[in-house]
């Protein structure tokens, strides 16, 4: 029984012991790529931080505008709806389209870069469902 053996292993030996990130281990080039001190210190382009935080900045602007127009209750209600929609997810090994979140943000009628070239459901990498669920539930 492989499940019983895995739970015995989990209870007796910490899984982190098997990782290659000990004090005497080198950098794993296959998993992490080449290291660069410059990439760790500064973003590679001045607009990188603005692009990384675009949705957050847009949400803040929309909430401030909504508060000025309709009052304090409107952005609070919308934030509660965002939080509720983000919590409803599929299983970790299944792709979730987040159509409800896109509808709340008004992105359901827009076609963007991520809609065409960044589709995780067409990815060649698929994790093992049992391992992913155990990780999400904190059993690993």
Describe the fold and architecture:
This protein has 140 residues and is an all-alpha fold. It has a domain at 60-137. The protein is 56% helix and 0% strand. It has helices at 2-12, 29-32, 37-41, 48-52, 54-70, 73-87, 99-105, 113-117, 129-137. Helix 5 (54-70) packs antiparallel against helix 6. It is extended. The model is unreliable at 1-18 (pLDDT under 50). Keywords: Chaperone. It comes from Haliaeetus albicilla (White-tailed sea-eagle). InterPro entries: Ump1. This is POMP protein. Belongs to the POMP/UMP1 family.
Name the helicity range: 55-70%
Model regions low in confidence, pLDDT < 50 over at least 5 residues: 1-18
User: What is the residue-averaged pLDDT?
Assistant: 76
Number of helices: 9
Note the topology:
Blueprint: H1 2-12, H2 29-32, H3 37-41, H4 48-52, H5 54-70, H6 73-87, H7 99-105, H8 113-117, H9 129-137
Helix pairs in contact: 5-6
Notable features of this structure?
140 residues, 9 helices, Ump1, POMP protein, 56% helix, mainly alpha, disordered N terminus, chaperone
Task: Provide a short characterization of the protein structure.
The protein has helices at residues 2-12, 29-32, 37-41, 48-52, 54-70, 73-87, 99-105, 113-117, 129-137.
